[in-house]
Design a protein that fits this description.
It contains twelve helices and eleven strands. With 357 residues, the chain is an alpha/beta fold. Strands 1-7-6-5-4-2-3 form a seven-stranded mixed β-sheet, sandwiched between helices.
């Protein structure tokens, strides 16, 4: 048996061992597009023959996994096409992983706060336990992570972390992956375009228990389109495909996303990321000058801590500025500011100057 065949067998066993038992014998729903076929007259999906919109093909169901979109993201990410699933944002991928691998009322996930709240919320809505652990004082993973996550099936790590904007170095994440061979380590890289050197997507081929989440909502400016990606071993993807909706990516979304991942689209994204980071640096510097404690910004936002948060909240509210505050005790005096364009950044800096100076 070749090395690749041995690895494929080992990976397949992990996916089957972790999956909900009932999924092993589940025959996935065969939608019209999955079945496919060849011909000139398509009457197999109860679709309307009338196209009442300018977009060609909108009266037909889309592909479950649009080949052009998968190919475009493969080219962009450097991850093989058979290791990619696309769907409705990274949020859908979170739910799909929980539905695929966690038995309600029995299994659990682990996550490290303060962090993105949907890991825990998604788990709770499926009656899956949540082992809510804390990041260290400097927002790093705990040293004894292997013993603390317990029997969690899924271990979520947000990197860069939302809402702190802090990062965990690649070597540390790789150690976690090796320390937890019987769990899926899910690294949420929603903001990775702002610090690409921290990505672990290139480790997908190396570790069968690694899953990486991506989105086009942030750097690619497609939050309203809702398009995200799950990157994982082919056997993990195959298991997730057993529970995915028949048509998770609407045709207009697929076209928008594929265009965004073209050479021109990627160049536009890269240029806009540079501009956002420049505005973010100005805002971070100004906030520090005003007396706020500011964490290093590795996404498209900065978290600032204020001595008198109520005064800042009042000035923001009275001037029509909507920023993000938190109920988490560790963030009770913090506000997260998303990076914006030059004019809005100038306005915000000028607005806060007389209040916090």
């Amino acid at each position: 048996m070749s090395e690749n065949e041995t690895e494929s067998l080992r990976t397949g066993k992990l996916a089957q061992r972790l999956a909900r038992p009932e999924l092993l014998s589940l025959e996935p729903y065969q939608s019209a597009r999955r079945i496919g076929g060849q011909g000139d007259i398509w009457i197999n999906a109860n679709e309307s023959p009338f196209n009442n919109a300018a977009l060609a093909g909108i009266n037909r169901y889309p592909e479950c996994q649009p080949p052009e979109l998968i190919s475009a993201y493969s080219d962009y990410s450097g991850v093989a096409k058979e290791c990619i699933i696309t769907g409705c944002g990274a949020d859908e991928a979170i739910e799909l992983l929980i539905r695929t691998f966690c038995v309600p009322g029995k299994d659990s996930i682990a996550c490290f706060g303060p962090t993105y709240g949907m890991y825990a919320i998604s788990a709770k809505t499926f009656n899956v336990g949540v082992n809510a652990l804390s990041l260290s004082a400097d927002y790093q993973l705990p040293q004894d992570i292997a013993s603390r996550v317990g029997n969690a099936k899924l271990v979520f790590i947000c990197n860069p972390n939302n809402p702190t904007g802090t990062v965990i170095d690649k070597a540390s994440i790789e150690r976690v992956i090796t320390q937890l061979p019987d769990a899926l380590v899910v690294v949420d890289e929603a903001y990775i375009e702002f610090c690409p050197d921290y990505s672990v997507a290139d480790l997908i081929d190396k570790y069968d228990n690694l899953v990486v989440l991506r989105t086009l909502s942030k750097a690619f400016a497609l939050a309203g389109a809702r398009c995200g990606f799950m990157l994982a071993s082919p056997s993990i993807c195959e298991m997730v495909m057993r529970v995915i909706a028949p048509y998770p990516v609407p045709l207009p979304v697929s076209l928008l996303a594929t265009s965004a991942l073209s050479e021109q689209g990627i160049n536009t994204m890269t240029e806009q990321v540079t501009r956002l980071k420049a505005c973010g640096t100005r805002l971070s510097d100004a906030l520090q000058g005003y007396g706020a404690k500011v964490l290093p910004a590795n996404g498209n936002f900065v978290l600032a801590q204020f001595d008198d948060i109520s005064a800042i909240q009042e000035i923001l509210l009275s001037n029509g500025i909507v920023a993000r505050a938190y109920s988490d005790p560790r963030l009770a005096t913090c506000i997260r500011f998303s990076f914006s364009n030059k004019d809005e950044t100038d306005f915000l800096i000028k607005l806060l100057a007389p209040v916090t100076a």
